[in-house]
Amino acid sequence: MDDTLVTSPLQISKRKRLNQRSKTIIYLVLGLTFLLLIAVAGTLLSHAAITTNFMQKNLLPSLQYPFGTDWLGRDMLARTLRGLSISIVIGLFASFISAMIAAILGTAAATLGKTVDEVITWLVDLVMGIPHLLLLILISFALGKGTFGVIVAVAISHWPALTRVIRAEILQLKETNYVKIAGKMGRGKLEIAVKHMVPHVFPQFLVGLILLFPHAILHEAALTFLGFGLPPEQPGIGIILSESMRYLSLGMWWLAVFPGLALLITVLLFDLAGGSLRKLIDPYSAQD
Amino acid sequence: MNTRLYSKFYKYVGQSFVKAILLLLAVSILSFTLVSLSPVDPIRSYVGEVGMANLNETNLAKLEAHFGLDTPPVERYWNWLTDFIQGDMGTSLIYRQPVADVISVKFMNSFLLMITAWTCSGIIGFILGTIAGLYRGRWIDKLIKGYSLLLASTPTFWLALIFLMVFSVELKIFPIGLSVPIGVAAAEVTVLDSLRHLILPALTLSAVGVANIALHTREKMIDVMEEDYVLFARARGESQLSIVKQHALRNIALPAMTLQFASLSEIFGGSILVEQVFSYPGLGQAAVSAGLDGDIPLLLGIAVISAALVFTGNLIANILYGVIDPRIRRGSVHG
């Protein structure tokens, strides 16, 4: 019997033009270029973003002002880029810190014995028990609101999920033969951790880091939108959107649509990049 | 024999319950510590800037005593906790009412919103996920997957703004804000009115909530459809419908349910944003005002209540898991 006889609908659909690897690379390159462009544009446009021009108030999107202008005649494109670059910087910083915390706690939970493990697992449950946005509000409140509060809140609250992943991964690793044998051969715990475990967990960590980033910027924007974050003179995306709310009933849709769309695209690119990277390192789906 | 098996299940339920209570206690400590750390001065937010300037020493001392600022933090926490357990959550500074009253009113509003969104997103998400997984790679799968990926990355508050613009400002189908019409006495508000104000926020929350559950169910469905028992069922000549009903749904329902109960925390987060955009007077909006205006008792109360909601969700999920899954009911796996 020939294998091809059992072609199910599932297999017919496998004619893909791009494989997982090239898709991942495309997403990553696109994402990084996007980041770089926005970061550069954001710094260049820091002045244009707050320059008012009362001759050109409330303009609809046009060639000269692709995103339109607001009620003070400020160029929305400049404001959006500037805002996005602020959000991205905070997001990068926050996801990096959170990923580091997750790496340390996850490793500690899996290697330092039962008590430490229980405490850390419990901590994860605890932090996950408070709705995330409310936790962000509490932390930013504890730090007296403002930019600093937002950055710290977003940075120190995103670790629980990744901690779970890393803990589970290392617990599994501890049971593998090569780690056991290395132990039997008298390698120190630290050496095993660095030489055998870190390289194995690193891809997971990287995916976790990339997937944390969109979360972090979404939360930063949400927190700023609610009024806890950046001062109004720093046009974060959250600020822009919360200001636009007052002009919605006047039909000024472009104030909200484009900045939000820009945020959406950033988040989507990194979600896709992270997701496809995860598929790539998972041997079960790497061949898809 | 049976009682022995079931006693294990009861023990499992009891353990989950005790764990939830302990976690709740820890949440209260954590929240209390966080709000105590805050540089926001409760007296200042109570009397305002002008009042602060006119406050003399004795009145200041009185107010400090009133807010318990002259007692050490641990004692303050203990006082707060014992009061809290007896149902006295303190007095809200912005509403000038007992926190318990404020929360109970807001909670009902929020609960209505969240339960609607939760149910809708759960059912629709599950159905979409099942269809997508079943027809993997076809156009309908691509459509559902694309929608879910897009919505999973969409800022909730932005979607709320867009809905507000499309449905309220442009089409004028729904009111712009508030859960009751403006200028109508509370007693005259009909059920229909409240429903109309509920639809748009609930729609936003559901649209976002669908994404997660649909993606998850889709993955599970794909896994299940590639199992040997499905292949065998097909070889036996079972129809596609019967395979889905008899084999697939039973296996994907459980994880989907757990996920849906675990998503309560996310729905709550989303409701904070949605309530803010639609000026829907719920817990989320109250939490934001409490945080912005330094209303510590209210913020604490909401933190504990929302955590209780999340833990209850997890607890129900655990128990349901036990009730539905025969393996756990007989206490063979999980602990």
Characterization of this structure:
The complex is a heterodimer of chains A (288) and B (335). Chain A is mainly alpha-helical and 288 residues long. Chain A has one domain: MetI-like fold. Chain A contains 11 helices and no strands. In chain A, helix 3 runs antiparallel to helix 4 and helix 8 packs across helix 9. The longest helix of chain A has 38 residues. The two termini of chain A are 25 Å apart. With 335 residues, chain B is mostly helical. Chain B has 2 domains: 103 residues, no CATH class; 194 residues, MetI-like fold (Orthogonal Bundle). In chain B, helix 5 crosses helix 13 and helix 11 crosses helix 12. Chain B is flat. In chain B, 39% of the residues are buried. Chains A and B meet through helix 1, helix 4, helix 5, helix 9 and helix 10 of A and helix 1, helix 6, helix 7, helix 11 and helix 12 of B.
Short key terms for the protein model shown above:
heterodimer, A: mainly alpha, MetI-like fold, elongated, B: mainly alpha, 2 domains
The count of helical stretches of chain B stands at 14
CATH topology category name of chain A: MetI-like fold
Strand content of chain A: under 5%
- Stretches with pLDDT under 50, minimum 5 residues of chain A: 1-6
Just give the CATH class of chain A. Answer: Mainly Alpha
Q: Report how far the terminal alpha carbons of chain A are from each other.
A: 25 Å
Helix and strand content put the structural class of chain B at mainly alpha
What top-tier CATH class of the largest domain in chain B fits best? Mainly Alpha
Strand elements of chain B, count:
0
As for the number of domains of chain B, it is: 2
For this structure, the quaternary state is: heterodimer
**Major sheet of chain A:** none
Q: What percent of the residues of chain B sit in helical stretches (DSSP H or I)?
A: over 70%
- SS-derived structural category of chain A: mainly alpha
